[in-house]
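Dear H.,

Thanks for agreeing to be a second pair of eyes. The structure we're designing against is below in C-alpha cell form, covering all 148 positions.
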C-alpha cells in the first residue's frame, strides 16, 4: 500500500460520510475500516473507505448487525471494498435475514393481543394459545413468541 493513497483526514471522512469522528474510530476498532498513520502519527484513510462506510450505513439502516457486515467484508477477496457486483451478491443473503425478521415480526403482531396469558404473565389458561396451561412445562416468560 502506498501511503500517498491514504490521504483523507479523519475530519474529511467523517464530514463526507455524515458520521462522527468517534464513529470512525469505532468502525476501525471493530475491524470494519482501516486507517494508516502519517509521519505525524495522524490517521489517514484511502478513498475507498467512503464506499465501505456507505455500505456499513446502508446495511445498518436495514438492521444488519455489525458482526455480519464485518464477516461480509472478510469474505470478499483481499478484503476489498464491495463493488456493485459484490453488493448484489451480499444483499441476497441480507434479504434472507430481513425476510426471516419480517416473518417473525408479523407473527408477533398477529399474536400479540392473545399472548399475554400464554404461560408468560398472569393467566394460567388461555383456551386459544395455552389450553390446560401446557406452556408451563416450558418455563416462564413469553415462550410462545419464539416459536417458528
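And this is the sequence the design step returned. I haven't edited it by hand at all.
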Amino acid at each position: 500500500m502506498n501511503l500517498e493513497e491514504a490521504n483523507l483526514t479523519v475530519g474529511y471522512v467523517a464530514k463526507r460520510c455524515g458520521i462522527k469522528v468517534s464513529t470512525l474510530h469505532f468502525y476501525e476498532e471493530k475491524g470494519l475500516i482501516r486507517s494508516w498513520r502519517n509521519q505525524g502519527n495522524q490517521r489517514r484513510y484511502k478513498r475507498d473507505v467512503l464506499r465501505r462506510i456507505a455500505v456499513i450505513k446502508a446495511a445498518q439502516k436495514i438492521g444488519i448487525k455489525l458482526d455480519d457486515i464485518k464477516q461480509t467484508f472478510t469474505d470478499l477477496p483481499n478484503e476489498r471494498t464491495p463493488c456493485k457486483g459484490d453488493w448484489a451478491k451480499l444483499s441476497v443473503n441480507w434479504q434472507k435475514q430481513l425476510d426471516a425478521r419480517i416473518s417473525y415480526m408479523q407473527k408477533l403482531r398477529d399474536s400479540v393481543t392473545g399472548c399475554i396469558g400464554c404461560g408468560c404473565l398472569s393467566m394460567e389458561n388461555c383456551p386459544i394459545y395455552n389450553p390446560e396451561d401446557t406452556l408451563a412445562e416450558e418455563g416462564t416468560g413469553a415462550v410462545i413468541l419464539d416459536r417458528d
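Two observations from my side: The longest strand covers residues 6-9. The chain has a mean pLDDT of 80.

Warmly,
E.
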